[in-house]
Write a structure and sequence with these properties.
With 495 residues, this protein is of the alpha/beta class. Helix content is 40%, strand content 13%. It has a 5-stranded mixed barrel. Strands 1-4-2-3 form a 4-stranded mixed beta sheet. A hairpin with a 6-residue loop joins strand 5 and strand 6. The radius of gyration is 29 Å and the shape is elongated.
Length: 495
């Protein structure tokens, strides 16, 4: 129902009304029934339903997905429309549209409420993408997209995103460069009230506060120079407790930390919490990369007694030269620790191998003509399977953007394990284009998760040697059992 309405609104399809009576019911939606109230009025005006029967039809539409109750009204509605002079084809099409309301139909008031929220969100994302991104990250888990996709989109729109830092990050993600470089915290409620304009005023922007334009006015993105840098918060660190983060922030309020040992002694957090921060590469501001920080953390031992703290501080073990991780392994560890990477997208490392197989990038789909056969691959972000339909929608992502995949029921049954279980899939299918919207109608699927997991294995040169342990003392306790280095990507499933 939505697509015919959009085509008519854009002038691509002629607006027609089967009768003057139905014109009064459907004129505001260009002859297409979109709201539950319209469906009820169509039944009354077009098929002779009584108001009580129309109300029962409305209640059955609300529960159709579970009971199939709309079908009980089919014969009466078609007979009534035929008796009132409407064609068999029109009567059957109208009932089929009403039947679909069981999964998608809204009362008009609900539709207006959702539309207002959607429009306000679009306006905020366009004019204040820095604030919008910070608020979404602080409201996780929510919505269709994970933090990696939210951050990627924000960076593509000019937002500078800075990594987690033990000396700069607060618990929440914050905007930096306001109030003399103090961070401005934003939570999910920051989209309301004066948070956005307050940020602009605090940063020295004297321009008058903007207000959302009326519907139909154009949206134009702000220049990147007007956006505030976004600092990822400690909440992004996998496994770090809020309590431990609070103790770190309280100790840091006195003065910045100077070393891993300084964080440990002043905050009093357990070594396990510092390992989480080291895994997240949060000690980079102290001149330590991820491996160096982990080495320092694992050398801390038990909690120090205050009496011996000064003596222990003077007796530091000699520096050890550790080989740095390659960029591919760093990206893998970023995903493991903070659900995203600011270095590179995992598929950037796989692009030569994908191109060798003639796999098109997601951005490259915009240059493929409608109806052409194509192969595309990406990390699975979202799976949607409407309850009353026979189709599954999958959204995938590579380093250039996202692509939308359509999988019909027969192919879903054939590739069920891949659709529901693969972290990365390869898709062969046909391009379906409508305006700027591009879908791939699937012909075949391939599980490419092993290729995704190879990003770390092919790029990590270090191997533990006997020299890494203490002489005649057994294995060094700072070495944990080797983990399988795989990229952990959690897709969002709605089915």
């Amino acid at each position: 129902m939505v697509h015919p309405y959009l085509r008519r609104r854009e002038g691509k399809e002629k607006v027609e009304y089967p009768s003057e009576a139905l014109r009064e019911v459907l004129e505001k939606t260009l002859g297409v029934p979109l709201f539950q109230e319209q469906a009820m009025k169509v039944a009354i005006v077009g098929a002779g339903f009584t108001p009580e029967e129309a109300d029962r039809l409305r209640r059955s539409m609300a529960t159709f997905k579970h009971t199939g109750g709309v079908g009980a009204f089919r014969d009466k509605m078609i007979r009534g429309m035929l008796a009132n002079g409407y064609t068999q084809d029109f009567a059957e099409r109208t009932f089929k549209q009403i039947e679909g309301f069981g999964s998608y139909g809204f009362p008009e008031s609900h539709a207006a409420s959702f539309a207002k929220i959607a429009y306000a969100s679009c306006w905020m994302k366009c004019h204040h993408p820095d604030v919008f991104c910070a608020a979404l990250l602080n409201a996780q888990p929510m919505g269709f997209y994970a933090p990696a996709q939210i951050v990627r989109d924000a960076r593509e729109h000019g937002v500078v995103v800075r990594p987690v830092c033990v000396n700069e990050s607060r618990w929440d993600c914050t905007l930096e460069g306001v109030e003399g470089d103090k961070a401005l915290p934003l939570d999910g409620g920051g989209l309301g009230g004066g948070g956005v304009n307050e940020a602009r005023c605090l940063s020295g922007d004297s321009t008058p506060p903007q207000t959302p334009p009326h519907q139909g006015e154009g949206l134009s993105a702000p220049p990147p120079s007007s956006l505030l840098p976004l600092r990822l918060g400690l909440r992004m660190v996998k496994g770090l407790a809020n309590e431990h983060a609070a103790r770190i922030l309280a100790a840091r309020s006195e003065r910045p930390f100077e070393s891993v040992e300084d964080v440990w002694r002043r905050s009093g957090v357990p070594v396990a919490a510092l390992e989480r921060l080291a895994d997240a590469d949060a000690f980079a501001s102290l001149g330590l990369d991820r491996r160096q920080a982990l080495w320092r953390v694992r050398g801390l031992g038990a909690a120090p007694l205050p009496l011996f703290a000064a003596a222990d501080a003077r007796e530091r073990e000699p520096e050890v030269a550790l080989r740095a991780m390659t960029e591919g392994r760093e990206v893998v560890e970023d995903y493991r620790a903070v659900q995203l990477s600011l270095r590179a997208h995992p598929l950037r490392f796989l692009r030569p191998r994908l191109e060798a197989r003639r796999i098109v990038s997601c951005a490259g789909l915009m240059d493929v003509k409608d109806g052409r056969k194509v192969a595309v691959a990406g990390i699975v972000l979202v799976r949607q399977r409407p309850g009353a339909g026979n189709v599954t929608f999958v959204t995938i992502e590579d380093e250039t953007g996202i692509a939308n995949i359509i999988i019909w029921q027969r192919l879903f049954d054939r590739f069920r394990r891949i659709v529901l279980g693969a972290a990365m899939i390869g898709v062969k299918g046909r391009v379906q284009r409508e305006g700027e919207v591009v879908h791939i109608v699937t012909d075949a699927l391939e599980d490419m998760t092993p290729l995704l997991h190879s990003v770390a294995a092919m790029d990590f040169p270090h191997r533990v040697s006997p020299g890494d342990g203490a002489s005649f003392g057994g294995p060094d306790p700072r070495h944990r059992p080797a983990r399988q280095p795989v990229i952990e990507v959690k897709s969002r499933n709605f089915h």
